[in-house]
Design brief:
By secondary structure, this protein is α/β, with parallel strands linked by helices. Helix content is 38%, strand content 13%.
Length: 463
């Protein structure tokens, strides 16, 4: 009995304007308005090209039979399978335009700079502007922010500086916060003492320690002599008092990060870290003066990401790694920004609220914690107007409109676009490199990871 063609009566349609990228006989089909994709071989690509909304599944099977000179009975199963997979990949869907998009967000997280003071003078510090601000947040002010976040699902706080361990009330703040919401402390770890470790180590807090290399030679070149050994000593003290794998490392990509990639992973495994996060260098603060000397070359970035991708596919999860290039994402929700602007506000040492840690210039100030709640800031006209601009960047930025990856990167980081180009309505400086890396992700990395959670929503179609 001949197989019934899936969608034999329906007329499947891939929306007009879809993008196509080819490599080595494979074709990456990208939806024009939604984060959807399918990886096709030549036959599946031809079938997809016939999904114009006029042909039924049976019509498509007949066209394939005629095109390849193959009997209809032999192609029906392949056509049926391909149509099912294209539908599963979301290639027949389109954006719902029956309702107007809403703006404003639910604030769930805060990047809280509790002090602008620091014991180091790192060459790449982007928070140096906080050094010129007075520490105006009392212990009760910080607790009030925690209380607000405790009322929303998945509320969390990242306590940073400057160097947050300079605050005499850091243990009290950390304990109060950790009892109520997910709490992260970002620290250089050089000031961890036995007393501090006893007070902090056993708390349910994630410690993100800045470690910019696997050796003193690399780390101290940007953070100062002796910083590496002090940071390692601080990590070990925290772990000795219960922190264990709650300690993670953040490595800013400066210099030649590919050179000691393997050594840093080995160090992380040896220390029993909970993970390593890689952060892009931002042209902010002291980093602006040192940017050209510190920013990795394009070839160094390419080598780094080759090692990064190889580790992701070969490591079997022995040490979680993440972060890196803003906008380099495959799993992006419909009609949502990957950027957490508004969902994660910046609150500076003076209590001023900003949309995010990259948009902390005076013109973006939304108010202060004494004038409004965090959610009131997220619902303010000023933030909603900003959200409209940011959410529409992939259609308003000229370089984005015709880019096949626009529904994924969405123009990159708007804050980095601002510091790189002086305007939000531009791509960031990583645009061309990100396009290269997207091709690597879709054609090489995704097929290896597609069975893992979060990477199985689209299909690799081979018939």
């Amino acid at each position: 009995m001949r197989e019934q063609i899936s969608g034999s009566v329906e007329r499947p349609k891939i929306p007009d304007g879809f993008f196509e990228v080819s490599r080595d006989g494979q074709f990456l089909l990208l939806h024009p308005r939604l984060p959807r994709f399918a990886i096709l071989n030549e036959t599946a690509r031809f079938i997809a090209s016939l999904c114009d909304g006029r042909r039924t599944g049976s019509d498509i099977a007949k066209a394939v039979s005629s095109h390849y000179g193959v009997e209809l009975e032999r192609v029906e199963a392949d056509v049926s399978s391909t149509l099912r997979q294209l539908r599963s990949a979301g290639m027949f869907s389109d954006r719902d335009t029956s309702h107007e998009r809403s703006y404003g967000r639910v604030n769930k997280r805060v990047h809280l700079t509790i002090t602008g003071h620091c014991n180091l003078r790192c060459k790449h510090c982007g928070a140096v502007s906080s050094l010129h601000k007075r520490d105006g947040l009392s212990t009760s002010d910080v607790k009030g922010i925690v209380d607000q976040l405790s009322t929303v699902p998945d509320g969390s706080i990242a306590i940073t500086g400057g160097e947050p361990l300079l605050r005499r009330d850091i243990v009290e703040i950390a304990r109060y916060s950790a009892e109520r919401i997910k709490t992260i402390i970002s620290t250089n770890a050089t000031l961890v003492t036995e007393e501090l470790a006893r007070g902090l180590g056993a708390l349910p807090v994630i410690f993100q320690v800045s470690l910019d290399g696997a050796s003193a030679r690399v780390h101290d070149a940007v953070r100062g002599a002796g910083a590496f050994e002090k940071a390692l000593a601080g990590i070990r003290l925290l772990q000795a008092h219960g922190a264990g794998a709650k300690v993670e490392v953040c490595r800013t990509l400066v210099g030649q990060p590919d050179d000691d990639f393997d050594a840093l992973l080995e160090l992380g495994e040896r220390l029993g870290l909970g993970g390593i996060r890689f952060l892009f260098l931002a042209r902010l603060g002291r980093a602006e003066d040192n940017f050209d000397a510190l920013n990795p070359t394009l070839d160094s970035y390419r080598r780094f990401y080759r090692r990064f991708f190889d580790f992701l596919t070969d490591s079997d999860g022995r040490l979680p790694i993440g972060g890196g290039m803003p906008g380099l994402y495959i799993d992006v929700p419909d009609d949502e920004m990957w950027c957490h602007v508004g969902e994660m506000f910046e609150v500076d040492p003076e209590g001023k609220i900003y949309p995010c840690s990259m948009l902390n210039q005076p013109e973006f100030e939304l108010g202060s914690i004494w004038d409004m709640t965090l959610q009131q800031a997220a619902e303010s006209d000023k933030f909603i107007n900003l959200h409209k601009v940011l959410a529409g960047r992939m259609e308003t930025v000229e370089a984005c409109r015709k880019c096949p990856f626009k529904n994924y990167c969405q123009g990159g980081c708007p804050g980095m676009a601002l510091v790189d180009n002086g305007t939000l309505l531009a791509t960031d400086a990583e645009c061309e490199l990100r396009k290269e890396l997207f091709e690597e992700l879709f054609f090489e990395i995704f097929p290896k990871l597609k069975s893992k959670q979060g990477l199985s929503s689209s299909e690799e179609i081979q018939i």
